[in-house]
Each structure stands twice: as structure tokens, then as C-alpha cells.
Amino acid sequence: MKTDHQLQVAIKDSILFRDSSDAFISKIAAKGSMTHYKKGKILFVHEDQAKRFFLVKNGWVKLFRETLDGEQAVVDMVTSGQTFGEAALFQDNIYTYSAEAIEASDIISIPLSLLQFEIDNNPKFVKTLLFYNASIRQLKDKEIEHRSLQNASQRIGCFMLRLVDQEKLGKTNIHLPYDKMFVAAKLGMKPETFSRALKRLKKDTKIRVKGATIEIDNLQQLSDYACRACSFEFPCADLKKD
Amino acid sequence: MKTDHQLQVAIKDSILFRDSSDAFISKIAAKGSMTHYKKGKILFVHEDQAKRFFLVKNGWVKLFRETLDGEQAVVDMVTSGQTFGEAALFQDNIYTYSAEAIEASDIISIPLSLLQFEIDNNPKFVKTLLFYNASIRQLKDKEIEHRSLQNASQRIGCFMLRLVDQEKLGKTNIHLPYDKMFVAAKLGMKPETFSRALKRLKKDTKIRVKGATIEIDNLQQLSDYACRACSFEFPCADLKKD
DNA sequence: GCCACTCCTTGACCTTTGTCAATTCAAATA
DNA sequence: TATTTGAATTGACAAAGGTCAAGGAGTGGC
Questions:
Q1: Residue of chain A whose Cα is closest to the Cα of B122
Q2: Which of A84, A242, B18, B163 has the smallest count of CB within 10 Å of its CB?
Q3: Dihedral sign computed on CA atoms, order B185, B75, B42, B174
Q4: In Å, how far is B42's CA from the nearest CA of chain A?
Q5: Is B150-240 assigned to CATH 1.25.40.10?
């Protein structure tokens, strides 16, 4: 089928499965199904029983948790090629966060049992999963550091730097991938704080902001500003080899 | 030898190796060596070439990073049964943080090559490592949440709750495992803030603080206070099955 | 083209945490 | 026991971020 082929391509393009055998990818494609979600659609909520995990074909999904009094913490934002919900395998098949499409998104869902089977029977895949997890862990460590050492403007600058095409080192434009209110949430600040911090960033680094488009004339100036409060040098090692 | 036996026991008691075969444990013990470190001793620094990883027999080690202007962020505090430095395997054999003994500690160092060999040849161990990493990743997610949703007093309360023996539900005493300034650093706040927040916590939850000893009469009151700003219920799932 | 909706921004004010300096406290050593 | 040293606390103040309320801007639907 056409759809089946689409699935295969999307799976083959994903971070987790790009090195998998064609046989395994076919198996996943056979059991997987793709759904389109509108912006705002909730896919599952924290503590739901987990039967499937998800692979984003395109769009953006917010992973988050809520406290009793309605406060929300963003766990992650995931996009094309990334998976979510697979961590439930290690948490008694309970989702440890809720998931919401924050842009119109095409998302492939795959039975967790398939992943479980592969973990039990395919050592090579387990190794892939291990490396995948290790790199996420590393990113989380960095994020915790950013929360304690960078102020709001620096965190926004850092967020932008991660969007920059690492090839070109002169002037660049970037495009915020989703609404500013979600960027704020991802960075752990309120929209009002984001707005004011962005203004300060503009003044201090001479970037220009036109809606969701950011024009960066001097990348060095931006990285000096943001990475001053970070223990890693720009460009971040985890972005280089991509 | 006596020492060799000591090593074997410590390794067998560790989280990462408790399910390993006796053969593997002997191999580790043979290549590992135990060293005593005084409080304040630096074991390695961020971006050092990594040849060995470490297993804490007893004591406490602070894993941290520093920015150019001397600010410090704590990545983790590790103690008996926990390992550190092993993540370098996934980072081109470069340590991604510095390590300092913050209490007098006995620490076993083991060649990373041994771990690498096992990853390449022992699928069962890879699976163990995968689960180990997954649970750490889960903890990191929770920590990021805490940073955005809990205030200083609540974070201290949460820290205490994690030290409570989960068996007894009435009155308990706990003992802070290391200096308050390090607890503050671990929780991402300044010592002065810690001191003031602890005072507020005392007033609000009726705990009593005598130096490093905390007397908790009403666990419920403490968990109500701290976990109100958390998306998980007390007692935390990751503590229950221990 | 107009309406409605959501996102974004701004101002005024408040709360929390950080900073700096001065003490106090307590454990370790002589 | 006296001394020294690092840890912990406190006060006064500053800075960062959050809250609440109002208004502006952009976008999609009709």
C-alpha cells in the first residue's frame, strides 16, 4: 500500500530505527498506524495504561505533567524522527507524562509489545536503545544545569542556537518551531517573562525578531551571551555530529 | 586476599552489578582498585580523558560542572552502591562532569574497557544498563519538574521525604547525609536561601531541626506541603520497590 | 472584509531568590 | 581547654521572575 510505504520511510528516518534491519522495520510498519492530530489534541495522559508508543512523522508534541493545582511542567517537546511514550516500558507500562500535539502533526503509533519483544530478542537493538537513552540523559543533565545557571534571556538565546544550522557560521535566520508560549513553557518560564526576556536579548545581542522569525547577524555575539553561563562551549557537542 | 573479597562484596552490593554473574564480578574485582578519598578531594574534572569509572563503596561524591565565571551546577550526588563516570562511554570517553568527594569516601575504580567489553559481548548486561539508565532518566525528568514547580522550602521537604525510611509511616528522624551547603547546591539554591527556606519549612510543617538531624512527627503534613507542587503522589514510585 | 479567537505584549505590582557583609556556631586540632 | 577553621545563620538590600489586568496584533472562518 501507499500508506505502508510512507510508514516504512518515516520509521527508517527515525533516530531510534535508522540502523534497524529492513525486516524489523517492515514488522513495525505492519503493526503501526499513522494518525493525523490537530493542534491541541491530547494523545494520552499521565498515568494512563500504556499499550503503544509513538513516532512523530511531522509536527510537534508537548510532553508534560500537571500538579493538583493545575500547574504544568514540560518534560520535553518532540518532533520528526523522535519517539515518545516508549519509556513506559521501564515504568510498568504506565505513561509518566501526558502528550499533546501543539502543532498539526502526523504521528505513528506502534505497540509497545513489539519493542518489548525486540528488547528480549535483539541484543543489537538493546544497544541502540541504550545509546539513545544515554544521549537523552546527557541532554537532561544539561537542561538542569541551564535552569540553575542561565537567566531567562540566556535560555532563549541557547534555545535559538540549537536551531541554527551548524554549517553556516555567519548570518542566519531561524524560525521558532512552535508558538512562543510553548517555547516559554519548554524553557520553564511564563509567557510574560519570555516576552520581556526576548526584548532584553534583542537589545543585548542585536538579533532582530519578526514574529516567529529571528535574524541573527552575529552568531558569535549570541553564543558569547548565552554560553557564558553554561559549562559547555558553543557549538554544543551533541549538535555537531548530526 | 582480604581486599579482593571486600571489592567483591561491594560490587555485588551495587545497583549496576547485583544481578551479574560471579565470573563477571570476579573479573571486575580483579581489575578494580579501591582508594580512600578525603573530603574535598577532586577525582577528575570535566573534559578529562576517561579511562576508568567509579563505584562508591561508602561516602558521598558530588558530580558537577563549572562555567567560565566560576558558577557551579550540581549534576548529581552519588553514594554507596552507585556508579559515576560510566556515562563517558557514550561521550567519546570524555567525562561530562567533575567529581569531588564531599565526605570521606571509599571508592572503587574500574577500567571503562571492562564495561565496554561487557557491552559488546554480554546482551544481558546491556539490558541491565538500559534499565539503569532509564530509571536515571526518569529521575532527571522529575528533577527538572521540581525546579520549575516547587519553591525552595518544598524542594527541601521533598529531599527529606526521599531520605525517610518508607516502612515507618508515623514519626521518624532523618539525618542529612552531607553538609547543608551541599544539600543547597544539589537542590539548586544558595546556602542562604536554604537556611531561610528551612526555617519556613519548620514553621509550616512542624518539623524540628537539630543540626543535621530532622525530627518529623507528621509525615503526612510534610508530604502534603512538598508534594502539592509535584505531579507525583507521595510516596514516590521510584522509592517504593527498593 | 469583518468577526472571533488566540497569541503576544505591556504596565504595575508582588514574591522569591540572590548578594554581600557581619556574626554565630560547631567541629577539629593543637 | 583554647584556638582555629569552615559551616551556618541573619540582616539589609538588589535583582529576577511571577501575577494580574488590559490592550494590541495576527490569523482563520464565515
A1: A123
A2: A242
A3: positive
A4: 17
A5: no
